[in-house]
Amino acid sequence: MITSGKGGVGKTTTSASFAVGLALRGHKTAVVDFDIGLRNLDLIMGCERRVVYDFVSVINEDARLNQALIRDKRVDHLYVLPASQTRDKDVLTLEGVDRVFRELQQDLGFEYIVCDSPAGIEKGARMALYFADEAIVVTNPEISSVRDSDRILGILSAKSRRAVESMDPVKSHLLVTRYNPERVELGEMLSVEHVKDFLGIPVIGVVPESESVLNASNVGTPVILDEKSQAGVAYSDMVDRFLGENRPLRFVTSERRGILRRLFGS
Amino acid sequence: MSFLDYLLGRRRNTAEVAKERLQIILAHEHSSRNAPDYLPALQQEILAVVAKYIRIDLEDIRVNLEREGDYEVLELNIPLSEDSKGTTIRATTRR
Asked: Residue B3 and residue A150: Cβ atoms within 8 Å?
């Protein structure tokens, strides 16, 4: 599950790139948009014109699951389940979501279900986190984002199925996005270590602030497919770490600055 | 921060300020995290009853929920007037 509490920190960007990364490594992956009423994953994935049925039509049994799943045209083993644009937030039910997830895993053989949580702590977000086995907490090095991530971690440890049924807790990972090492060194931004200390969960990646993220969303290509961009490489590393590989963090220190910029600031 | 900033005494480390503010707010929020959902409503209703009889200043009231062994202690601290030190209502429930 990809979560953050706060909006606009990069949940959907992360969901798209993470799912692409898993599929590129041969794992059959579904990425599910939980943001009912405000779907956006389809745009980031570049499949918005192929949406016919959606998550809600499957839950309401108006469509079969394999009718609603959109197969990605670039990457094998990757499918998108878009959210509906209905204004009724109560269409998601635990029973309905549970049934769809079982079908994805047991009947269709999906190895990973990546849930793109909506912002906030309302029903959609709680539905997305309820079934989570692992959570990627996307956090900007900024105080309101850290606070909201902390709240989400509290809810995960109390209201997820793993908590309710006294199973092993949800395994949470910290992904710091929009990181600017220059500003950290200038004392203008919280460092990844500080964010990690506040939230108390291990770091799975640091994605630097990068123009390539907006460029990627403009054209509907998840940024992980842009192998030349730092953000794309950072997401690739993060997927490897998730799968147990050892990858040292990159892009956490600033590149050398010229002597004049050092003297007079930038 | 540049050398020029340093010379001119324009020292400001906003990240440090952010850190301090976060430390305080997170500590506060963690202490109330395990409180039951009804606590704010319960607090309001108790205060409404007290306010019927005594003039109180809502700003000065502190509510605490603590766990002491098998007991949960709900503590309300209400200053009754300027010259009194305040009164404490303690409610204890066995879990």
From this structure: no
pTM over 0.90: no
Query: Cα(A29)–Cα(A48) distance, rounded to whole angstroms?
Result: 18
Bridge partners of A80, per DSSP, are A31, A70
Residue with tokens 């009889």: B53
Interface test with A, best of B33, B34, B37 (most A CBs within 10 A): B33
Give the torsion through C-alpha atoms of B16, B17, B22, B28, to 10 deg.
Answer: 130
- A188 in B contact zone (CB under 8 Å): yes
Q: Shortest Cα distance from B9 to chain A (angstroms)?
A: 13
The 10s digit of each residue's pLDDT in A21-68 is: 999 999 999 999 999 989 999 999 999 999 999 999 999 999 999 999
A258 close to B (CB below 8 A): no
Q: Which of A173, A174, A152 is nearest to A163 (CA)?
A: A152
By the 10 Å C-beta count (0-12 exposed, 13-18 middle, 19+ buried), B95 is classed as: exposed
What is the ipTM for the molecules in this complex?
A: 0.82
Return d(Cα B58, Cα B34) in angstroms, integer.
Answer: 23
Amino acid at A5: G
Chain B residue whose CA is closest to A198: B23
Nearest of A150, A259, A248 to residue A199 by alpha carbon: A150
Contact of A170 with A156, CB cutoff 8 Å: yes
> Which residue of A154, A194, A265 is in closest CB contact with B5?
A265
What angle do helix axes A192-199 and A143-159 make, rounded to 10 degrees?
30
| Contact between residue A224 and residue A232 where contact means Cβ atoms under 8 Å apart | yes
